[in-house]
Amino acid sequence: MLTISVIFIIKDGSPYISYLDQYFTKVEEQYKYKYNFEYFVYENDSNDDTASRLSAFFKNRKGKYWSESLKNNADFKGIQPQRCQYMSALRNTLKQHHGHIASDYTLLIDCDVLFPDNIIEQLIEIFSSYNFYVGPSEQNSITLELPTDSIDCECIPNNKQQPTWTDTFKTSVSANKLTVERIDSKTGWGQPLKFNIVPTNIVAVSPFDYCYKRLRENHNNHYYDSLAFISNDNIDYSNNGNSCMFKKCGRCRDYRKRTNIQFDDDNLLDDNKIIKVNSIFGGCFMLKTDVYNNVDWVDDSKDGVCEHHAFCKKIGQLGDIMFTPNLKVITTIPKLRFYPAIDKRLQYITMVKTKQININIAFPKMIHLIYLPWERENGKLKSDENDFNQDFYKRFQKENPKWLVVMWTQSSLKDFTKDFYPKYSEIWDKVKHPTQIVDFYRLLVTYHFGGIYWQYGSIKKVPLKLFVPPISKSARFFVELVLTKELNKKIKADGNLKQHIRNGKPEEPVRVANQCFCVYPRDDFLKYCIQKYWRNLHTYEVKNQYDILYIGATAMISEAYDEYPRKNEFVLDFNMKRYINVLMNGSWRLSKYE
Ligand SMILES: [Zn+2]
């Protein structure tokens, strides 16, 4: 569990407290197995019932609020140092009140900002990996500058791969340089390539903040808080006339032209590109709590116009501050507190847009079998990779002459990895048990070639052509079992299946099978599973049998299915037994994992 501290100052914001109450009630429930929340709030001199609303807000929540009347109470408008000093003082007062915080992340928010339900999860993810746009290339190998120093890069592209594409890549990272090489061919590539980058030291993240007032005027690409923004090259409000710097914002481009502001268009920002910045506050700002504990809001410059500038300057000395324009929030103003309508608009903006899938290739007539013989006593791979009964493979190929049945063994899997996914060769040393290797490669070879993954020895009950996904669907997955209450009890009672690794999160109601699945090449859901497996493998340690299921087998796929936003792209078939009798011998279990 992670603990998130939500921190804000507020004045005359009674309706906003009601919004936050509803919002966090929803989010606290949705993430109850992932996040604990605590809140620290400072209210001063409100003319409405903000203070009593706050008291109600804190009824069943952790944290504390302070409500005060100030001698120097004021409402500064516009760009001026007095406002900056005043705001710094307010924010610092709250910081001094709550003192040292022991949470993992701190979310600073402003009044009248509306959030999508998953924004906290999405912001937190950036600290461990972000999506980087590489684009097409005429050369076979290119080196690009990343916005951050980084330690790793996924080798499977993050943009959608078409079933007909054969492109595979080798990626390597050194400091802030990413090298991408196409390895299935000596040429370049045309696809708008994107990769997942693992950064070294991101300490703060802020999303794109729409201005509701401008959205109502149909300025659909305008960014709200241009005053707090300072680019990595120190371009700030004094250079851009306090306009937003997004390429797509026609409003601000016209404004700069009309007011004759000399501005170099090379500085304009893409709304799909994550960048490192010197200062930002787009409605909210997520930072690591240990960093927050080590900075304050004091602005020594005396002529500062925005309290975030000095604050971010201190944070920037401790790590990278990132601006992720693909994540969205909306800020409104007190006059336009139409929260339900704004919330609807936000849902519309952040909706996952799914295109109808048009697959124009035939389903690959390929069956993938994997067998890695291992010693029962110690769980080590046998030295002779062919030391297993191959009758099933021979019979299966003979019975299905129109299909290519591939019998994957240790050497062919290693060759395949070297040729197409060199980065993944470390899997062989990284796992505790050989079945974990099988679990990984069933995803990867089927992702690469398409076709059907078939658990060795399982019995086919209908012709193979009936396994093919229906028209306009990219894959057919099967439900292994539906978790009934009784079954859940049985699992809980089994000492070998202790689910400490889940941290109290209940199993998903539907367990998705990994013993058999049918996909076109480069299936997106399978890619999601591979990336999840790889992340899990580097995050968790195997301590019991269940952990193996959770890191990379059925429990992992089930959780992936639960999380995956585009479920309608493939079929989840509840009638597995009609298609296949899976060979289950349970013999993969070891009594100890050390
Ligand atoms: Zn703009």
Detailed description of the structure:
The structure is a single chain. The protein folds into 3 domains: 2-125 and 201-350, Spore Coat Polysaccharide Biosynthesis Protein SpsA, Chain A; 130-199, no CATH class; 366-581, Spore Coat Polysaccharide Biosynthesis Protein SpsA, Chain A (Alpha-Beta Complex). The protein contains 19 helices and 24 strands. The strands form 5 sheets. Strands 1, 2, 3, 4, 5, 12, 13, 14, 15 and 16 form a 10-stranded mixed beta sheet that branches. Strand 1 (2-10), helix 1 (14-30) and strand 2 form a beta-alpha-beta unit.
- What is the highest CATH level, the class of the largest domain? Alpha Beta
Count helical runs.
19
C-alpha Rg, in Å?
A: 27 Å
Strand fraction equals 15-25%
Low-confidence stretches: none
Look at the structure and give the mean pLDDT.
93
What is the CATH homology-level superfamily of the largest domain? Answer: Spore Coat Polysaccharide Biosynthesis Protein SpsA, Chain A
Alpha carbon gap, first and last residue:
25 Å
Ligands, ions, cofactors? zinc ion
Number of domains: 3
Q: So what's the overall shape? A: globular
According to DSSP, the number of beta strands is: 24
Summarize the amount of helix as a percent range: 25-40%
CATH architect. name of the largest domain: Alpha-Beta Complex
Largest sheet: 10 strands, mixed
Which structural class should the secondary elements be placed in? alpha/beta
Q: Say what the CATH topology of the largest domain is.
A: Spore Coat Polysaccharide Biosynthesis Protein SpsA, Chain A
